[in-house]
Amino acid sequence: MKNFLILIFTIFFSSIAHAGLNEVGSGGFYQEDCKETILGDYKRSYEQAKSEGRDFIMYVSISEDGCSSGASMPMYGINKKGHKSAYKSCKKNAKKFTKADCFIFSINDEIVWKDYDQLSVSQKDLDRERQSKPVFLDEDKKPGRFFEDQPDITNDFQIHVIYTLYKDSKDKEGDINGKVEQLIKVANDWTYKTTKKANEKSNTMNGEGQRMKLDYRKDGKLDISFIRLGVTKKEFRDCSGSCGNLAERTIINAGFNNPKKIYVNFGDYSYAEWPYSAGFPIFNIFSTASGSRLNKSEVGYFLLHEALHSMGGIYSCSPKHVNGHNTKKSSDMMSLQGDGRNMTLDPKNDDYWGHKNLSCPNLQDSVYFTPTSDTPFDPFEVTCLSKDKWKITKHDYKNFEDRRGIGYQCFYTRDDVTAPWEKEFGIY
Fold it and tell me: Which distant-in-sequence residues (6+ apart) come within 8 Å of 69 by Cβ?
């Protein structure tokens, strides 16, 4: 939910017939930060008016999408002409930003808005809460299918696969017929070959290739969990900004929030864009993306590319960093406009893989690869925690910024998902 802040000059007391003219506002604000912003505007503007010996009036317009505030310091006291002009300006801006009327918030040093200290819940918040809860259908209960993360065979860091469908999707059973497991295996074999070439070239990791640490069950099968999203295909397509990263929120809210795991959302449905990462700990692969079916020749590139993003890459401290990627358009598989064919993993080993820059994370050192580097780093710590809370990561990374809440790096810091990070993760 975005908050739009507009200064609107207005005056009080008039008999002009407008809905909000001369009317005191009422009702709680939709967000705490909206309320705090309005209060901040009020305090600053009132103090200025007071210092200049003027009267002070403030109008506020709020909606489910945001809030706008207006402050007035009448030159010659309160009068009808000034009020009419100011109210007109308020309505003009409110029409553009809040699509709601303007009402009196304060008169001089008194806040007259009724129920100011309360918070309301917008319809979009209610819809978002409903939409980000998985649904459970009786017909989805099939042998070999699991709705929860199965007992781990190791306490090591792992990448866990989640098979998702729309609320109205036909069940293609990719999680139980072996198709998803086969694609993940192909992708991990590709990761091994690709990292082996890079490690041989950079003379690191003894020239050995690395694989992703995948989450397996005790029976040796890849541990794949099943989630049916709380939205239909049409609802997902029509979802507005409040529904951003809906699948990822559903996954986190369903209890998949182990800080020692990265989650692959394998969406067995058509998605309008390419695979992407939402930041630690989630990235997405789709059976059909941008109109193209996923095939074995490209799944390795997609899996490794997005996995590196979910590990925090490409970090802005990387010399060639461009918009979370490495270079704008090149043969580098982490370039912004790469197509996945004949791509190389950090060709010169000078940016994010096998490099010698001690001030920036080397993704080769991520704890989610095996064999694991002798100098590992934990992407959760580096992307979500301040340095004083790092335990696994022993690197200094001089001048490395605190990544919490910056861009998409740490999904756990979003305010539209719920997870026990405050108590258990120590993020705040």
Answer: 5, 6, 7, 8, 37, 38, 41, 42, 58, 59, 60, 61, 105
**Among candidate residues 256, 244, 318, 254, the one with its CA nearest the CA of residue 281:** 256
Strand-pair category, 158-165 with 261-271: parallel
What is the 8-class DSSP label of residue 315? P
Q: Could you name the CATH architecture of 127-425?
A: 3-Layer(aba) Sandwich (3.40)
Label residue 93 exposed, middle or buried (CB < 10 Å: 0-12, 13-18, 19+). Answer: middle
Euclidean distance between CA atoms 408 and 118, whole angstroms: 31
- Distance in angstroms (rounded) separating the CA atoms of residues 74 and 55: 6
The structural domains of the chain, with segments of one domain joined by +, span 32-120, 127-425
**Length of the chain measured in residues:** 428
Helix orientation angle between 123-131 and 246-253, rounded to the nearest 10 degrees: 70
Q: Which pLDDT value is given to residue 65?
A: 62
HSE-up of 201 (CA within 13 Å, CB side)? 16
- pTM score of the predicted model: 0.73
Q: Label the pairing between strands 325-326 and 224-228.
A: unpaired
Select from 213, 266, 251, 216 the least CA-distant residue to 379.
Answer: 213
Distance of CA 269 to the CA centre of its chain: 21
pLDDT for position 243: 58
Other CB atoms within 10 Å distance of the CB of residue 92: 12
Distances (CA, A) of 190 to 103, 184, 186, 300, 350: 61, 10, 6, 5, 22
CA distances from 398 to 352, 360, 427 (A): 16, 8, 21
Q: Give the pLDDT of residue 264.
A: 97
Distance, CA of 428 to CA of 384 (rounded, Å): 10
Cβ(156)–Cβ(369) under 8 Å? no
In the DSSP assignment, the letter for residue 377 is B
Q: Are 26 and 60 in contact (CB under 8 A)?
A: no
Residue ranges for the chain with pLDDT beneath 50? 1-17, 240-242, 404-407
**Selection from 399, 374, 402 nearest residue 388 by Cα:** 402
